[in-house]
Automatic annotation (TrEMBL):
<keyword id="KW-0132">Cell division</keyword>
<dbReference type="InterPro" id="IPR036390">
    <property type="entry name" value="WH_DNA-bd_sf"/>
</dbReference>
<keyword id="KW-0159">Chromosome partition</keyword>
<dbReference type="GO" id="GO:0051304">
    <property type="term" value="P:chromosome separation"/>
</dbReference>
<dbReference type="Pfam" id="PF04079">
    <property type="entry name" value="SMC_ScpB"/>
</dbReference>
<keyword id="KW-0131">Cell cycle</keyword>
<dbReference type="GO" id="GO:0051301">
    <property type="term" value="P:cell division"/>
</dbReference>
<keyword id="KW-0963">Cytoplasm</keyword>
<protein>
    <submittedName>
        <fullName>SMC-Scp complex subunit ScpB</fullName>
    </submittedName>
</protein>
<dbReference type="InterPro" id="IPR005234">
    <property type="entry name" value="ScpB_csome_segregation"/>
</dbReference>
<dbReference type="InterPro" id="IPR036388">
    <property type="entry name" value="WH-like_DNA-bd_sf"/>
</dbReference>
Length: 216
């Protein structure tokens, strides 16, 4: 039987946090043996028909406005500076190929990558260092951060659009589908990594001093 106090506690934790709350953080607030999954399922169902829903974002949970109400809540504002084309392409490459190094990104794009591009994406909370590859020079690798999933409304990276979806939206032409994704092969309508599997097993965890090497 669900304890109403535990239910309210989890509800308050998520409501009070500006960022998605991890299940580990929730569990630390609950007595040992409490079924956290059952509590989350109960809250998720309770808010499913409300103005905001309880949703999973990566490894955490957050309250977000119900999708069908988004249009009614729109407010016209002056747009901030958009991401450059290089930043958008770099973010897409990282999302679909991660973990990748700067050299990987440059090879896929076919042009050199300015230091500021990765800095911008890092500052936005969309990419994060994933470790150093055990190859000469130990280059820093990059992957998406939790903020990427939250900003783009994804529960996990498995929700990234596949090839057919990108083509239908006009975001991918036949040439791109044929080879612009480098080591990503088409399997059904999904993109599957075929070139970095071995390298993924050869990553060193970041040392404290590595965190400051953003532009590497």
């Amino acid at each position: 039987m669900i304890d109403p106090h535990h239910l309210r506690l989890i509800e308050a934790l998520v409501f009070a946090s500006a960022e998605p709350v991890s299940e580990r953080s929730m569990a630390e607030r609950l007595p040992e043996g409490v079924d956290l999954a059952q509590l989350l399922s109960e809250l998720e169902a309770h808010y499913a028909t409300r103005g905001f829903n309880l949703v999973r974002r990566g490894n955490g949970w957050a309250f977000r406005t119900a999708p069908e109400l988004a249009e009614a809540l729109k407010v016209e504002r002056t747009l901030e500076r958009k991401l450059s084309r290089a930043a958008v392409e770099t973010l897409a490459i990282i999302a679909y190929h991660q973990p990748v190094t700067r050299a990987d990104i440059e090879e896929i794009r076919g042009v050199a990558l300015s230091k500021g591009t990765l800095d911008t994406l890092f500052a936005a909370g969309w990419v994060t260092p994933k470790g150093r590859r055990r190859t000469p020079g130990r280059p820093l690798t990059w992957g998406t951060a939790e903020g990427f999933l939250d900003h783009f409304g994804l529960a996990s990276l498995d929700d990234l659009p596949g090839v057919k979806e990108l083509e239908a939206a006009g975001l991918l032409d036949s040439r791109a589908a044929a080879g612009a994704y480098g080591n990503r092969a088409v399997e059904g309508d999904r993109l599957v990594d075929t070139g970095f599997e071995e390298e993924d097993q050869q990553l060193d965890l970041l040392d404290d001093e590595d965190v400051l090497g953003i532009g590497q």
